[in-house]
Amino acid sequence: MGHYLLVVRRPDDAAAEALSAALADLARTAALTVWDLNRNAWLAVDGPHAPKTLEGGPWTMIGDVFNRQRPVLPRTRPEDPWAYERKLVARFWGRYVGVRFSRDHQLSAILRDPSGALECIAWSQDGLTIVASDAPDWLVRKLRPPWRINVERLDQALRNPLMSSGPLLIDGPVAIDPGTVQPVPLEGPAHPIWRPADIACRSLEPTPALEDAARLLRDAIDEAVTGLAGASGPVAAEVSGGLDSSLVASSLVQSSPATVALWLSAYGAAPEADERPYVAALAEALGIDPLCVPHATGPMTEAWLERTSRGLRPGVNALDRPHDMDWAARLGSAGVRALMTGKGGDSILLQRSTADVFTDSWRARGWRALLSPDVPRLAATNEISVWSMIREARRHGREGSRLPVRDEGFLTARPDGPSDAPPVHPWLADCEAFGPAKTMQIAGVLDSVSRHGPSMLTEAVDVRHPLCAQPVIEACLALPTPLLTHGGRDRGLARHAFRERLPAAILDRRSKGDMTRIYGRMILDNLGVLRPWLLDGRLAALGIIDRAAADRLLTRESLIWRGYYSSIIVAAAFEGWVRAWDRRLTAAR
Predict the structure, then answer these.
(1) For residues 286 and 156, what is the distance between their CA atoms, to the nearest angstrom?
(2) Would the pLDDT of 281 be above 50?
(3) Residues 6+ apart with CB under 8 A from 312
(4) Phi, psi of 82 (to 5 degrees)
(5) Bridge partners of 339?
(6) What stretch of H or E contains 224?
(7) Which of 163, 212, 346, 536 is 20 to 30 Å from 471 at the Cα level?
(8) What is the pLDDT of residues 68-91, one digit of tens each?
(9) Rounded to the nearest 5 degrees, what angle is found at the Cα of 151, between the Cα atoms of 145 and 156?
């Protein structure tokens, strides 16, 4: 999606008025569209799908806003000061940030939609309050904000994948969490009005019938796909050959076939990354004609490693730059303005059909959980015995859920040891009522926020992720994990719900396309760039990367034997982010 910048000046302050006018001029020079919201506030937007505004009661909504087809309104108390806002985020969904003004045209509150699809930071400076999706160079140069990189938070984020959203790694601006209202002045506490755990509590109620659950899920996916496809067009759709993109494609054919100008698929050189047979089966079933192109590759350079992370957060989504540039060119040639993807399905539809699913059922039903016909299938899928699953379920009752952490193979050991618990995001703070599979699903919702991050592709077209949208998130969170893995299979309910739309080749598929070898080869082929980038970089200078450990790891022999590809590419993105922001903040100072 595009970017927005809201500037609100303090009234009767000549210096603030002059600075506001200067920023508006700079925004116009940077090719942003600028207009006044009131006598003290102006808004600037740009991008391939520039945000628009919509009035919703006392709120001005910036971005895309859609009516819910079947809203479930929350119960609110008469004394709840945010009762209206809780109902607002239940009645509408989309990719938006809301702002509310007082009678004297001053900003009084900020609201971010539950999906977190549109970034939102805010800060006050020199008589101005600024709300934005980004902090471009021209804005930082003009304002020279007194921001600093938070080294401790940077270290924590490298170890904890769930910190990809949440607080920024810079001290200064305030990051508004999804589903949260932030009153102004910004020093006051934020108020969460939507949390995944609150929706997931519905999964603890009596389990719905299979067909009712299937209809709920199918309707939610159709609602998200139809809404995002209609935001602006024409659109392209990614069809990878996997289940998730196939679900989105089937919904597009069902509801919005005329909006799709191009069906696009990339295949890798490794056999496990070539999914063209599945794409062909999908094309025949849906009556579409996909364009299959090789997954683009190219050499890394320090310049593009730094370019990937000039945004507010490390550019983990932007590291496949050759692929992004290739697709951006193809979509531009086709006259396409947006791309629909299947990203996010792994997490929310429950691709992890592990023994944790049985633990969820055990917590809810005890020994009666063994009566489910899915139990032996689940055990067979995971190649373990039912007794092993019982043992794990009982262990969870004693130890609780474990959240994911990144492999710390080349990071400096913490003084308090590897068992030091990473910071817990507010969305995960109240998950004691849930088993490990539902807790991991909530963690997946948190991770899905980061999928909306910028890249070369998002600079060219509006990239839309229906499976990360609020209707799908809420439908899946409200269902028990054993139902989501119906038949003891990953995404079993989704397979059942779309069995009349998708071919058997995809519904019955046991394997999954794997790009690991492709990205592993990318790292191996670019060790000449990555070694000095990490060994002589800012993360090593700050003591976050252990130079000796990284020196041993970053060799062809070690990588082929031990892997660590994901950790290396994430560290490369973080290194680029630190270098870019060091330079920007030093210049500002």
Answers:
(1) 45
(2) yes
(3) 119, 121, 134, 135, 168, 170, 173, 175
(4) -115, 25
(5) 236, 463
(6) helix 210-229
(7) 163
(8) 998 989 888 889 999 999 999 999
(9) 125
